[in-house]
Amino acid sequence: MKKLFTICLVCATSFMIKAQDAQVYLTFENGEIIPTEVTGVTSVDADASILIKTPNNGSDIVQGVNSIVDEGGENVLFTDYNGYLKFDKTILNKTSFTIMSDFKWTGNFAWWIGMATFVGYDSDGNPEADPVVPAGYVFNHLNIKDRAGQLDGLGMATSDKPLTQDVYHHLALTYNSGELYLYVDGVEKASGSGSELHLLNDLELYWGVKLSADASSGDVTPWTDGNGNSKCAQVFMDNVALFDNALTAQQIADIAAGTSIPTDIDLPVIKSKVYPNPFVSEISFDSDIKTVKVFDLSGKMIVTKALNNSKTINLSELTKGVYVVQLGKENGVMETVKLVKK
Predict the structure, then answer these.
(1) DSSP letter string over 147-179?
(2) Same structural domain for residues 217 and 318?
(3) Final residue of a domain: which of 209, 232, 257?
(4) What is the torsional sign of CA 189, 191, 196, 199?
(5) Do strands 156-157 and 211-213 pair parallel, antiparallel, or not at all (unpaired)?
(6) pTM listed for this prediction
(7) How does pLDDT run across 222-281, given as a tens digit for each residue?
(8) Same domain, yes or no: 250 and 278
(9) Overall domain count for the chain
(10) Is 268 contained in some domain?
(11) Helices 249-257/7-19 angle, 10° precision
């Protein structure tokens, strides 16, 4: 799929996340966000045009809406500069949460590009500041500091540069009552304490964008520098998961590495060609298959069939959605692939 993940590890991610009881898990198939119409999650499109300092020499460029695109045979969500995924106050547990996804950024060569924004209402303000800060909406950013991929914000900063531009990484952020941990590819890269996100009311998360918020209304606006240049990036994301608790370092590492999956499912590198994908009723193989097992994204096996080395199987009984299909060969080798039923 991407530089760091084979297609089988993407399948594994589906099982891993469900095994950890994610509050919501999103994948992007056949032009849709799966599952569709998740309460509390919104795909917000970019619109109009924006100013980009380089490589366009400060000229306006027209943005596109969020779209599901093919990246090396995998469907992912593409957000164009000011586009993003929004997790609102009805789904985000402000006291303790984990947000993670496969993540690639590109398209903007400025510094301090926003990767995520939190917006919430501070009912206390800061009466001791000079001038006094009244109660109102506030915002906090997690930034990509430079093109090399250094990260900072929310009281954290990476010592190295782990989020390389134009490369997919597994990105995870955990929060627990002020304690923050940032992981890239399963490795802790930064931590911080003293954040007060959990003390804000109506906390919301904007994934893949840098925004400011109006102190009175909470209305958000894409971030620009003093010359009007955008401080957002083009983002590709997949396997987006939100948890209502802070996962441990080991759980994050297992998910990123593809090891935390049900013990009865083997996920070696796929060698057989399975087509068509998406399919309507039948799927075919380019090699002899002895058995087929079909799992939904919760890891539940819903179909098992013996094929006796046939190269075709009818799965018309499946409802529309995403499935993991495990293929058993005569020599005992098991291969697994993610398929979409139209």
Answers:
(1) TT--EEETTEE-SS--S-TTS-EEEEEEEETTE
(2) no
(3) 257
(4) positive
(5) unpaired
(6) 0.72
(7) 999 888 888 999 999 998 999 999 999 988 988 887 654 333 333 334 456 788 888 889
(8) no
(9) 2
(10) no
(11) 150
